[in-house]
């Protein structure tokens, strides 16, 4: 699906009817016919668009050698996308987003439904001093992706705090699976942010897209924000790794406590079982003819059970 978009003078994104009215062309989950038509019309390789169909595609900055923007160039960044993991918990992957900058129009593309237009319209950077629409939209998209990474990082920190509160009574593997999915998300984050950072630095060093001082300042701010997110990812990864080790130890310890309690109960219940088994034999036994034998046996079982509990408690068995 192709959307024809343009920016109004008050920085509102408007969908227009034809490509002649548009300054921004967005393609969602492009078909082979759309890829062929656009690549031939704007003279760029088809892999500029097919890259978004591969979820494993890495971020990159691709352009032929040129001193000014004559041939379209590719900015391929990654953005976070929430999915459901095979274990049934929330997991966040990094998916590719293609930005093809041509002399006439900006072409963007992604595979999944990304409702980014409201975020861009209300973004603080869209109301900056940039006069070039391509620079405005490109920098705002980069800001949006950086903000999305930081948003999901914050949610992972909240989930980590919740897991810590559940540690004390945990005897199941559910939290471990959830922890594993968060660790996988952070691995995706680390790789995507590192690659995005390399692309942004190349954009900053190049004079093909960002031609004004204001646009370079915005790109530099995005680079700083991306570096901060990358540092947060590394810290959170280390924390989750430590938490995973602690989690495993606590789950194992809680299970040992449960088994210890069950062992104590089994030992105590063994006393009446043995006495009942002995007095169930069809032979002459002490007190077998006493009319109060049953009560004496109950008293003996109770005293022996209490004595056993006292011994186990003294030995700090529980």
Automatic annotation (TrEMBL):
Family membership: Belongs to the CorA metal ion transporter (MIT) (TC 1.A.35) family.
Pfam families attached to this UniProt entry: CorA
Highest taxon of the lineage: Bacteria
Subcellular location: Membrane
GO CC, alphabetical: membrane
Keywords assigned: Membrane, Transmembrane, Transmembrane helix
Topological relation to the membrane, as annotated: Multi-pass membrane protein
Record flagged with keyword Transmembrane helix: yes
Residues annotated as transmembrane: 261-281, 293-312
Name of the protein in question: Magnesium transporter CorA family protein
A single MF term (Gene Ontology): metal ion transmembrane transporter activity
């Amino acid at each position: 699906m192709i959307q024809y978009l343009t920016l109004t003078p008050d920085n509102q994104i408007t969908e227009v009817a034809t490509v002649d009215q548009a300054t921004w062309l967005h393609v969602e989950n492009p078909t082979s016919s759309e890829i062929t038509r656009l690549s031939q019309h704007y003279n760029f390789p088809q892999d500029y668009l097919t890259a978004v169909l591969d979820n494993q595609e890495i971020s990159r900055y691709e352009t032929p050698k040129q001193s000014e923007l004559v041939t379209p160039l590719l900015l391929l960044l990654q953005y976070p996308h929430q999915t459901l993991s095979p274990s049934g918990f929330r997991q966040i992957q990094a998916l590719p987003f293609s930005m093809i900058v041509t002399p006439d129009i900006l072409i963007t593309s992604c595979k999944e439904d990304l409702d980014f237009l409201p975020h861009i319209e209300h973004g603080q950077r869209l109301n900056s001093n940039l006069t070039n629409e391509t620079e405005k939209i490109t920098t705002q998209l980069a800001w949006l992706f950086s903000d999305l990474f930081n948003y999901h990082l914050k949610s992972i920190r909240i989930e980590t705090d919740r897991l810590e509160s559940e540690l004390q009574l945990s005897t199941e593997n559910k939290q471990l699976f959830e922890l594993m999915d968060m660790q996988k998300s952070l691995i995706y984050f680390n790789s995507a942010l590192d690659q995005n950072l390399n692309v942004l630095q190349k954009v900053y060093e190049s004079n093909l897209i960002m031609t004004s001082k204001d646009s370079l300042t915005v790109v530099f701010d995005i680079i700083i924000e991306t570096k901060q997110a990358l540092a947060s990812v590394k810290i959170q990864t280390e924390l989750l790794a430590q938490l995973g080790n602690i989690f495993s130890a606590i789950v194992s310890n809680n299970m040992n406590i449960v088994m210890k309690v069950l062992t104590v109960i089994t030992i105590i219940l063994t006393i009446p079982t043995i006495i009942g088994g002995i007095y169930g034999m069809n032979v002459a036994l002490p007190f077998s003819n006493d009319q109060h034998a049953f009560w004496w046996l109950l008293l003996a079982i109770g005293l022996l059970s209490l004595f056993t509990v006292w011994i186990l408690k003294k030995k700090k068995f529980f």
